[in-house]
Request: fold
Amino acid sequence: MRRTSVAASLAVLAGITGAQGAQGAPVVNPGTPAPDCTAHVNYDRNTDLPGYRDTAGVCQPFMSLNQLVPDDYAGDFYAAEFTDAKIHERWQACKADEACAAAARKGAKGFARVETRETGTVGTRGKIDPEGEVDLAAIRRPADFGKAPYGEPIASADGQTFVVEFIAPRDAYERVHLKTNGEIKLRGWYIRGDGIAPGEGQRERALVVMNNGGGNEITALDDPSSVPVARDEASGKYVLNEKPDGLSEEPGMRHWRGFAHAFHKAGFDILVTDRRGNGLSGGQNGFNTAEQAKDMAREFEQLASGQGMRAMGPDGVTLEGPQAASTVMDGADIAAMPIVLMGYSRGSYAVAYAMHKNFVETCDRDMPGGTCGPALRRTNIKGAILYGPNAGGLGTRVKGHDMIEAALREEFSTTYYPDGDVAAGVTSWPALQIVKGTWDYVEGLEGSLGALNRTKGLKDIFVFHGPHQLATQSPENMALAGERMARFALAAAKGETRLDGSAVPIDLRALVFSAPSHWDKTTNPDSMH
Reply:
């Protein structure tokens, strides 16, 4: 069972509970409706949060920003003050302050490590050596998740699924700090779809690329009977059960695969590989999200050429090279088919960097003297779906994370959090959808809405009552999220400018009130009157 994530641990270390200021201090920026109530949420914040009281008398809570725009500031604070150049400038001063530097380096070291892999730790099937030569038949397929006790709908896609393997270089952290070189393998699934209807004429193939959340593994088991979070009797808080239960490898993954099913049901092809350093894929570190953005481009190139690629279809035959690529693509052109990039949590950071590289500029922030070049300009990338994201960049996170990121870049050759350059670049994206829980700790909800409002093209935001993590989410909310994301992906792939049946909320209060009536499994709305 998945242990507490580094990101969540750092959130606790940083002292964020409700991200509140001093008693009586504002928790929203000028122009945003002031909260008029407070409500207690359980997992994973276990604290009182500000909220808005609805007409039924229920206080609907939300995660507020940790940093507000300074008085009399002119401009886009969250973008302009958290660029790569700005954080490096502040880092020089921070390094001269022993306490500041120690805190930043301690935080950075949490992302310069080898993560625990969970796939294959339960049952007799699915465990591989990610760094070795792998029999693709040993990797779990969608059909494995249709069996009892799992009963996941993704099993219906097994007949259209290929287990795929791509090659990629090791990232800068591994090369520079671990002294390892050579190639790694990225592994996962390519699920062929039936095509989307463009409106008139025959269906066309279109692709959604899914990027897992931090530490998530696409073929990890998730038994519905597992109890990943429980109330601690001593403290009264809801905490993660860190002891493996022998049933699940990663609770919540059934929801992630449920999203894949929703996209596939809508007609999309699906490409999802475990990120480097996680699950089925090789490598030892999984935190360089800018490098993971490059991995998507590498996979596209190999789906075109076949060079270095392997694939196994439902017939159990392993193919290599151009034959593998042509069989998987079955006549579709990866350079022309509409593509929507989608990611959860850490995967959403990779998507943000991929969109920045494609529409704004390609930058190398991992090494001293890194340069920027022109955007890739792949015209068939139609938009991004960010679930549980840091869409607003470093400024919408907890204060101090900018110094952690600067330390990561300068001393650990790693680019992790999206910076202000990426946040500002959202204006160049063709389409953006944000999906998140109202008390998701990653960034204040006001920051997410602000990021969405930078978008000039198709845009949508869907929120629900719950935390960042998947494990305790309401199944009803997860089904609604999957349906909403599939509809947005269809609209983006077709080049539409608005999503039928949805509207961008006029302010933060309207956004909070737009959440469906379902709540996460640990929090009771009846106590919020």
Q: What stands out?
A: The radius of gyration is 22 Å. Confidence is low (pLDDT under 50) at residues 2-21. Residues 103 and 404 are 8 Å apart (CA to CA).
